[in-house]
Backbone:
């Protein structure tokens, strides 16, 4: 899943660094992602993973790293549920 | 340590006991990024970010919608910064930029943004938007109620019950 998230970040995140050099917990906003770019990332994630981010998840922390995005998608798809 | 020079914390201690009652937020958006979003995501982008009123106005502009949408996105983000939601979630449509007949704009808050502003003691928002060529920007000022004297500071100097019902 991380590779798919990174591909979306590469296409829509408008990062100022190569996303492949960022660790999973690297701060995407520090890496240059603007709030407007985060909207695009969200919409691309929704298309890729067939999910919809509810309003309660529209907060900065959800999109701040590859790891936080993965957690959010796992929550939405139930993939991470044990 | 006893004769250390003035520091930021020292200066802070010298300020009046009432916290500042103005918060400010600003944002800058590239118009071409909004154009790309429309091209890539179309209605999904428009409907998730902008209210019907905003779309009615922006989509009717002769010089195209992107410039005006970019200014509104900047205004929404500037409002979020001024409200400082922290870990709370705020949908973009909970912040609406509404244009008056004369051209001036107001920030109108809905749902979670309205509730957050109430909790923050915000009683008025003032907005200014601008655009030039490729860029759109906005500044939002939030005027907050003055916080009552903090617990344990002034309260100790007045008779118990003076601030209480």
Residues:
């Amino acid at each position: 899943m991380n590779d798919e998230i990174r591909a979306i970040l590469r296409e829509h995140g408008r990062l100022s660094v190569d996303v492949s050099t960022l660790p999973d917990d690297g701060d995407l906003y520090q890496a240059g992602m603007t709030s407007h770019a985060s909207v695009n990332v969200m919409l691309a994630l929704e298309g890729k993973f067939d999910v919809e981010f509810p309003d309660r998840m529209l907060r900065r922390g959800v999109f701040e790293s590859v790891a936080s995005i993965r957690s959010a998608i796992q929550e939405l798809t139930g993939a991470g549920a044990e | 340590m006893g004769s250390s020079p003035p520091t930021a914390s020292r200066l802070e201690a010298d300020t009046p006991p009432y916290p500042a009652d103005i918060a400010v937020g600003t944002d800058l958006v590239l118009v071409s990024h909004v154009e790309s979003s429309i091209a890539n995501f179309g209605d999904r982008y428009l409907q998730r970010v902008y209210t019907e009123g905003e779309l009615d106005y922006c989509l009717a502009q002769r010089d195209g919608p992107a410039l005006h949408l970019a200014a509104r996105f900047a205004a929404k983000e500037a409002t979020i910064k001024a409200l400082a939601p922290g870990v709370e979630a705020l949908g973009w449509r909970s912040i609406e930029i509404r244009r008056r007949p004369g051209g001036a704009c107001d920030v109108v808050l809905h749902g979670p943004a309205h509730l957050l502003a109430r909790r923050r003691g915000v009683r008025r928002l003032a907005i200014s938007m601008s655009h030039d060529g490729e860029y759109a920007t906005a500044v939002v000022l939030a005027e907050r109620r003055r916080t009552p004297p903090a617990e344990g500071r002034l309260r100790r100097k007045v008779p118990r019950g003076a601030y209480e019902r």
User: Anything to note?
Assistant: The first helix of chain A runs from residue 2 to 12. Residues 54 and 74 of chain A are 14 Å apart (CA to CA).
